[in-house]
Design goal:
Layout: E1 2-6, H1 11-22, E2 29-33, E3 42-45, E4 48-51, H2 55-60, E5 65-68, H3 72-84, E6 88-91, H4 107-110, E7 120-122, H5 126-142, E8 144-153, H6 159-170, H7 201-213, E9 220-227, E10 234-242, H8 248-257, E11 261-263, H9 275-278, E12 284-292, E13 298-305, H10 309-325
Parallel strand pairs: 1-2, 1-5, 5-6, 6-7, 8-9, 11-12
Antiparallel strand pairs: 3-4, 8-10, 10-13, 12-13
């Protein structure tokens, strides 16, 4: 098993290494690639140092699986080249997510869309992943008509630059701002850049990706993305309107049965999901489960998950594990 991580020095790349080690993923040859400025640096994996190589060197070693955690321009330039030489590429950027011939995979939800003849695979946006894990069982049971999402997204979703800005502001240290405003003691209602319709690119990703993963273009979805000064993970306030009636007990039963979900819903004891406690866990936590009495067949839930783990690294590693388990790796 030759496995490459493209973008191995970034926050997601390093989290991928951590998750691979935790899950005892069998690797005979580990290839760590990054930008030219990082070539030659050493990264520790399983107590051994590995030298970071260039993209060209990683490509030349013909990995069986390549986990891409670089930006979309790198993926657009290299992903198909890797695929053409027989590599399964699991790409964490936005480059390929909405291409019709590229499966967009959350293993708990739509693993059947993964096929050996489609070796270029897209990892969804971090906010999308945790959302569809919660929506999928409810959509199958009650048929969702409309979803209103407000996200409260950790600075770690912006990588090292957003995290450093918060860390420096909190310590009163000089910093090069990544966000358009101070993030410490503040909320910024912007994720990505603004489109001409007033929605941001992060909001549009949620809309488009949820429809694709759930295979339902009729879903009515609207989203507001807010950046918040926390590190632990992303939180989502989710309002759902169904076509059919439901019982709360059945909603809770379906969510509890869904792989990857942990219910934290004891409001009388102040037990509900929070990013502080979701950090470094692979679960999607769901709580504040209650009817929306303002609309027929309405439901409110609160969804929290570590965006670097299930929202990125863990989801990608789960896809790689499935590929190995199915015996699709040859040579």
């Amino acid at each position: 098993m030759r496995l490459a991580i493209i973008g191995s020095t970034g926050m997601v790349g390093r989290k991928m290494l951590q998750v691979l080690e935790e899950r005892n993923f069998v690797i005979d040859s580990l290839i760590l690639a990054a930008s030219d400025k990082s070539v030659g640096n050493k990264i520790i994996f399983q107590s051994k140092p590995f030298e970071v190589v260039s993209m060209q060197e990683a490509f030349a070693q013909k990995p069986h699986i390549a986990l891409f955690s670089a930006d979309s321009t790198v993926s657009q330039a290299w992903a198909k080249r890797f695929v053409e030489q027989g590599t399964f590429v699991i790409d964490n950027s936005s480059a390929w997510r909405l291409h019709n011939d590229v499966p967009l995979i959350v293993p708990e939800v739509n693993i059947d869309a993964l096929q050996p003849n489609k070796p270029l695979i897209a990892n969804p946006n971090c906010s999308t992943i945790q959302l569809v894990v919660a929506l999928a069982p409810l959509h199958r049971a009650f048929k969702i008509k409309r979803v209103v999402i407000s996200t409260y997204q950790s600075v770690t979703g912006s990588g090292v630059y957003g995290s450093n800005q918060l860390r420096c502001e909190r310590a009163n240290l000089p910093t090069i701002p990544f966000y358009p405003h101070q993030i410490d003691l503040n909320l910024i209602p912007q994720g990505g850049s603004f489109n001409s319709d007033g929605y941001t690119t992060e909001e549009q990703k949620l809309i488009d990706e949820v429809r694709k993963i759930l295979s339902d273009t009729s879903l009515q979805i609207t989203a507001t993305v807010v950046r918040v000064p926390v590190y632990g993970g992303h939180s989502e306030s989710v309002n759902i309107e169904f076509y059919t009636k439901f019982e709360l007990d059945e909603v809770k039963r379906l969510l509890k049965m869904m792989p990857g979900i942990v219910i934290q819903d004891e409001p009388e004891k102040s037990i509900y999901p929070m990013p502080f406690y979701a950090q470094e866990k692979d679960d999607v936590f769901v709580g504040r489960i209650r009817r929306d009495f303002s609309v027929e067949n309405g439901l409110n839930i609160w969804v929290v998950s570590d965006n670097l783990r299930k929202g990125a690294a863990t989801n990608a590693v789960q896809i790689a594990e499935y590929i190995v388990r199915k015996g699709w790796i040859k040579g």
